Amino acid sequence: MPQSLSQPRVSVSEVEGARFQVYTERQFDQIEALQRLSADARFAMRVVAKVLPFRVNRYVIDELIDWDRVPDDPVFQLSFPQPGMLREADFARMADAMRSGADRKAIQAIAADIRAGLNPHPAGQQQLNVPLLDGQPLPGMQHKYRETVLFFPSQGQTCHSYCSFCFRWAQFVGDREMRFASNEADSLHAYLAQHPEVSDLLVTGGDPMVMKTRHLATYLEPLTDARFERLQTIRIGTKSLTFWPQRYVTDADADELLRLLERLVAAGKHVALMAHYNHGRELDTPIAREAIRRVRDTGAVIRTQAPLLRRINDDADAWADMWRTQARLGMVPYYMFVERDTGARHYFEVPLARAWQIYRDAIQQVSGVARTARGPSMSATPGKVEVQGVAEVQGEKVFVLRFIQGRNPDWVQRPFFARYDESATWLDQLRPAFGEQRFFFEDEFDAMCRTASRGAD
Ligand SMILES: *Cc1c(COP(=O)(O)O)cnc(C)c1O
């Protein structure tokens, strides 16, 4: 039963699972709950876990998954590898190698080969968004939209559990080259000081909340200094409110973390946890509620976002329920994303036309305070593109689109049109409507890409 906020606060001794215990691909056999699955099903999971990252903790297993509903349970789908997540040929190749007892090196080579075919770096992340400080690239940062800098602290490049659909999955497997990470609090601060146009810092990962509070403080506390007066908003992208709410309640430095958030708020910053929630289930445990209450007590705001995923949340009622509960708990629904063009996308993707219908059916069910969620939105290379709807203009059925964010801010909020396509799942599959050859932004975007590739030489 979901708790209501008016019920008495839970005491620390009542909350479950205070000890963090995690399982990876190597500890599959130690996960007791999996014993109820067939040997074939378990083997299939191991095959997929050789290629895609897998990490799950005890709280997710014990409190969030309904094992009577496995394999259809949404949290099981989002945290455990499923056979369909690899294409058939890739799956067969890895399964054969494992059955024939191939050695570690051979398995790793096959895994690397399969991964390379899964578009590990969507949206030009490695070439197009790297900021420069005194002419030197800052690999642990991205600056794509004028107002907002993304920062990837090196100690925050893992998560309490992994999502099977993660668009940054490539960071968690294989060689370290694929990661962007930064040790450099100093370069972050120097960059922000040099860029007064930046109003928002978005600390992300991985999950920055895996960091000890004192590490997080090294990055964030100096931002209260007068020289960062123009920095208004400190956002932290996190799934910890779902995967490890103990971070805010029972962890040894939980209180210290809350005090840090309070100090940032007191210094006049807007502090926002950009919390990743895929399903209402994630909001229902007493400790999740307590974590939310404690974060809100600091003056920080919790904004919620998630991709729309087949098998997990491709259902308008599930979104409406989730948004209603979030609004009731004082959280602010923020984005509904389209599953990105990477990793196991074929397993999760929902056509844009259907995504829009789900969004609309969900939005229609909730009051204005929960209609703050925008979407469905594609985080594509030129910008965040929202499907605003399907319309008919002079006999032609079209998608109405807009940039929510653009590499050029001038692209934002201009309606533009694509030919309706029932099966399209991503921007690159859309064609301009009304017989046009190109979308309005494409010439300028191509020029930006040429400049960036010259810079990378
Ligand atoms: C989404 C996003 C942001 C933040 O955009 P808002 O619309 O301000 O939330 C910043 N940088 C990148 C690369 C993003 O994808």
Quantity of strands, as a count? 15
Element string (H = helix, E = strand): EHEHHHHEEEEHEHEHHEHEHEHHEEEEH
Q: List the total number of helices.
A: 14
Query: How would the global form be characterised?
Result: globular
Strand order of the largest sheet: 5-6-7-8-9-10-11-12-13-14-15
The set of bound ligands, ions and cofactors reads:
pyridoxal-5'-phosphate
In angstroms, what is the radius of gyration? 22 Å
- Major sheet, described briefly? 11 strands, mixed
What number is the mean pLDDT?
A: 92
Strand content: 15-25%
**What separation lies between the terminal Cα atoms?**
58 Å
Q: Which structural class should the secondary elements be placed in?
A: alpha/beta
Unreliable residue stretches? 1-17
Amount of helix = 25-40%
Quick description:
This protein is of the alpha/beta class and 457 residues long. 31% of the residues lie in helices and 18% in strands.
3D structure, described in words:
The chain has 457 residues and is an alpha/beta fold. The chain has a domain at 18-116. The protein contains 14 helices and 15 strands. The protein has helices at residues 39-49, 58-64, 74-79, 88-99, 104-116, 185-194, 213-220, 240-243, 254-266, 286-297, 316-328, 345-348, 352-365, 442-456, and strands spanning 22-24, 55-57, 132-133, 136-137, 141-145, 148-151, 200-203, 233-238, 270-276, 301-308, 332-338, 374-379, 383-393, 396-406, 416-419. The strands form 3 sheets. An 11-stranded mixed β-sheet has the order 5-6-7-8-9-10-11-12-13-14-15. A hairpin with a 2-residue loop joins strand 3 and strand 4. The longest helix is centred in the last third of the chain and has 15 residues, at 442-456. The chain starts with 21 loop residues before the first strand and ends with a helix. Mean pLDDT is 92; it is low at 1-17. It binds pyridoxal-5'-phosphate. Pyridoxal-5'-phosphate (PLP) is lined by residues 142, 144-145, 148, 150, 202, 379, 384, 404-405.
